[in-house]
Amino acid sequence: MKNNYHHGNLKEELIKKGIELINEVGEKNLSLRKLAIICDVSNSAPYTHFKNKDELLKEMSLYIFNLLKLELENTRKKYKNKENLLEMLGKTYVIFFLKNIKYYYFISSRKDVEIDLSLKINENNLTALDILKEEAINKFSKYNIPDEDIQNKILAMWSLVTGLVAIINMTSKNYVENWENKIDEIIKASFITYYKEN
């Protein structure tokens, strides 16, 4: 008989186990019933946290992006007011998914993940991208760069780090012994993280 009471944070465990299950058997084979068995709880227990599978999937994406946001916030605090802040935010993004491959595979498989590439920032509910946007705006607005150009730079930076994550996960690990050092070199070599006045 399964436990009706679960010690610890059942919602978080369902999310974590759900991400692992999707990586192992695919999204179509995910169900709240299967997760109940894995977490050793009653079949009804998951429904106290999620109405259905779709809600669970959305919470999984939110969980991952919140972890990423926390990492970016820590980097921002550490490198606040330093010239290389944007580069370090980019590196933090790449390293996060390099160390959490299952999160990368889950997010890259989602069709319902939306990102806001406008210059709007919701101060009350910052996202991982908002942190990059905020710091990019702070940096580039000093040079009176038009908003459209700032937006293009943000898109270029976001594309760089997401592209790096994809490349690392597609490339033979023999290509580079230490990807962390290589990431530094690649981001520093890009021209999109700085601006010179003419």
UniProtKB/TrEMBL annotation:
PANTHER family: ACREF/ENVCD OPERON REPRESSOR-RELATED, HTH TETR-TYPE DOMAIN-CONTAINING PROTEIN. Residues 65-92 form a coiled coil. Residues 31-50 bind DNA. Residues 8-68 form the HTH tetR-type domain. This is TetR/AcrR family transcriptional regulator. Keywords: Coiled coil, DNA-binding. The lineage of its organism: Bacteria, Fusobacteriati, Fusobacteriota, Fusobacteriia, Fusobacteriales. InterPro entries: Homeodomain-like_sf, HTH-type_Tx_Regulator, HTH_TetR.
